[in-house]
Amino acid sequence: MPSHRVGQSGGTDMPSRPIVLGFSQLGSESDWRNANSQSVKEAAKEAGITLIFDNAEQSQRKQFEAIRSFIQQKVDVIAIAPVVQSGWEGILSEIQEAGIPVIIVDRTVDTADASQYVTLIGSDFYEEGQKAGKYVLDKMAASTGPIGIVELKGTEGSTPSIDRGRGFHDTITGTDKFVFLGSEYADFTHEQGKDKMRSLLYRLGGDIDVLFSHNDDMALGAIEAMEEYGLQPGKDIVIVSVDGTRKALEQLIKGKINCVVECNPLLGPNLMQAVNEIMEGRTLPKRIVTPESVFTEVTAEREISSRKY
Ligand code: GZL
């Protein structure tokens, strides 16, 4: 397949054939991830872009294998949703040597050379953590403390886990009435969220007043663990989560979750626009941030009917 690149002058010999995009998706660990994949597939079809999609099942090694396959196939653009932040310099150099432009999607990568990718399309996870922390400050304003907080963290080393945690902790630690009792990595999955919440309850039981979960799937698992333990989620323990899936909003309406910070997975249209602009030789911003909101018991009813995922 002849490869077409952005011309030296910045112009490009637009291919007479459909643009080919290789997308390394990190996995299918959560409803958010599946909605993200669906958005990319639908947007590619809508844009007439040929999509080569690979699901790495949360393995960075499998992402590298998929990317090397994209290079061999001489795709026009490579998009990567990186499972963790570190370890990408080598593979990004291989792509650069092949002359293929790169778009980073959703999470980010650590690299000393920002020229190794054209743009990053995704959320501001630190701000999402701050929003979660602000909700807890408001919700617990009348309490004198001590208020025991536990945390279910996403995939270790992933941008959302690192930055949501930083944003939340930076917001909460301003007052001494909050006590962080413990945190567990639960890999953004429902199953591990339930399992790790069980162990936190076993260790800390009635001392837990607040759970901050880095995503909805882990929060939904934690709700099951709390009910097994004989506690009322949303009442005995305040729950704040991130994503905004339909299942989480349903629990929000039932009062079993108290706040869901939105993280928008529908990045497909932004990605395809960026691909087209690269192929047209246009300059893109280094960062494209998706707009997001916060859902509480008050706004959930209004939002749930419009949720696509
Ligand atoms: C955030 C995304 C996270 C979601 C999880 O943009 O990377 O990964 O919050 C998903 O649900 O597994």
TrEMBL record:
It comes from the Bacteria. Belongs to the bacterial solute-binding protein 2 family. Keywords: Signal. It comes from Paenibacillus woosongensis. Residues 23-281 form the Periplasmic binding protein domain. The keyword Acyltransferase does not apply. The keyword Nucleus does not apply. The chain holds residues 91 to 399 of 399 of the full protein. This is LacI family transcriptional regulator. Its main location: other. It is found in: Cell envelope.
